Amino acid sequence: MEVLTNVNEACQIGAKLHRPDGKPVEWRIFDAPLAYPDALAMMDERVAAIAEGKAAEAVWLLEHPPLYTSGTSARPEDLINARFPVFPAGRGGQYTYHGPGQRVAYVMLDLTRRGRDIRCLVQGLEQWVIDTLEAHNIRGERREGRVGVWVPRPDKGHAREDKIAAIGVRVRKWVTFHGISLNIAPDLSHYDGIVPCGITDQGVTSFEDLGVIVSMPEVDSVLRSRFEALFGATTPAEGLAITA
User: Fold this and answer.
1) Which of 142, 168, 174, 230 has its CA 20 to 30 A from that of 109?
2) d(CA 13, CA 10)
3) Can you count the helices (H) and strands (E) in the chain?
């Protein structure tokens, strides 16, 4: 899909992205790393079921084994060293990395009940990350022309900033999938095999790199509360223990 970066000034996130009927989003946390092809297959199945009215909306929090993904705008020259498996993602954007220590959130929402405004959705996802970072005393910011959330790094030089979260979404029959990836404590050297998101003049960072030491369950708890503030109520996936 089109890469969407501009902030929509007409989007009142909470008012537009909440469901009028208040039905909760199913919230699921995976305990073990999930293979990327398995995640894609599961998302495809769930998105189809949501579109047909046979399943509730869902957010899945998980980690992947080390891998690279290529979005619909990926350039071959940006794959510098394929040190990990490379998977076509089918989402917008370019190359990105997933791996242990990074929280991936797959977001499957029915936009027919949430305003049918894709730009507003992207703005909401960005705000979700920014609010989560703020709760940990990290200042995350948007950048015109660049999807994702950035952290100013004056310690590295003038106008330097690092990306802490990537955002890539796709919409099928007005149901969203893919979502965000937030760096908690990944091995940042794993990014050396790609030009992340096609950007050569800035870097990547994480909670750990910024000196914020926090556990994944602690971040998950904040992600859930900040999601609910923007998108509405959540409920644990049936039959699954949710720790956040």
Assistant:
1) 142
2) 9
3) 4, 12
Give the model's pLDDT for residue 6: 43
Length of the chain (residues): 244
Instruction: Report the C-alpha gap between 111 and 109 in whole angstroms.
Output: 6
Catalytic residue chosen out of the listed positions 61, 197, 216, 219: 197
DSSP E strands: which ranges in the chain? 25-29, 58-62, 67-70, 86-88, 95-98, 102-108, 141-143, 146-152, 161-172, 175-183, 203-204, 234-236
CA dist 182 and 132 (Å) reads: 10
- For residue 221, give the 3-state DSSP assignment: helix
Q: How many CA atoms lie within 13 A of 228 on its CB side?
A: 14
Residue 78 makes CB contacts below 8 A (sequence gap 6+) with: 94, 95, 194, 195, 198
Which whole-number Å values give the CA distances from 236 to 74, 160, 228, 240, 242, in the listed order? Answer: 35, 40, 13, 7, 6
What average pLDDT does this structure show over 19-33? 96
The two structure tokens encoding residue 149: 């959330």
11 annotated active-site:
no
The helix-helix angle for 118-134 and 216-231 (nearest 10°) equals 140
Q: What is the pLDDT of residues 71-116, one digit of tens each?
A: 878 888 889 999 999 998 877 678 889 999 999 999 999 999 998 9
Binned at pLDDT 50, 70 and 90, residue 201 comes out as low
Locate all alpha helices (DSSP H) within the chain, ordered by sequence.
Answer: 13-17, 36-51, 118-134, 216-231
